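May I ask for an example protein's residues together with how it folds?

___
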Amino acid sequence: MFWRWFREYLGVTIGVIITAVGLDAFLVPAKIAAGGLSGVATILYHLAHLPVGMTMLALNVPLFLWSIIRLGWRYTVNSLYGTVALSVFIDLLAPHMPLLTKDLLLASLYGGVLTGLGLGVVFRFNGTTGGTELLAAIFRTYVGVNIGQLLFVIDGVVVLWAGIVFRSTELALYALITIFLTSWIIDLVLEGLSYAKAFIIISQHADTIGQAILTRLDRGATAWKGHGMYTGQEREVLLSVVARAEVAKLKQIVHEADPEAFIILADVHEVLGEGFKRLEVKHN
């Protein structure tokens, strides 16, 4: 239990340090306010020279109080460590961080990668950094809409405000690049690269296709019974997971057996079992 707790807090700490570096080295000096409370703090830093970390912490205080009322103590406490740690590390590292580039594109790209990587690590170790995530979770208790949509709206308002304050459309556009890149990197850290593809095949020749998958690709396939609501016909549905390099071969197999087959192709981020990674259970 202790080692699990220690590993999680260590992971969150590493994540917030990476995020702080992304902000201090790239986004804040370049005036790229990429949404969230960090974006608001970046704007206030350039307007009134307020320290970014402590500004973020101050802005989070009313959110934490509101969160206790709407979401309860447990949810709020889980967000506390990451929020405080990020604010502290941003201000601790800022005086020692060299200006690595004056190019806005490079700043938006590298800032987005580092903040996305850092936040992804924080989330992977069951931490959060408060801010707009906390605000969106609170709003959801009132309006009941998707948190992702709320985050998009909040980030959009911050970016628009930065564009007006800094009188620069370019800075707003670079901030949008950073937001997109940060979100993509977070998903990449949490889910991993898509290294396999899942095929769902609906065909009257499922047996032929399944045998070809077994013999020509040396992959497995699972069949179950399906019922067409429009035609009223019974059909078999095949599920097979293959490597990305085998996608074209499987499409060819299906086309040869049944050109009219219905195929659903989806990304698979992790596969455990024969032919892929072994299932391993870690004991704490």
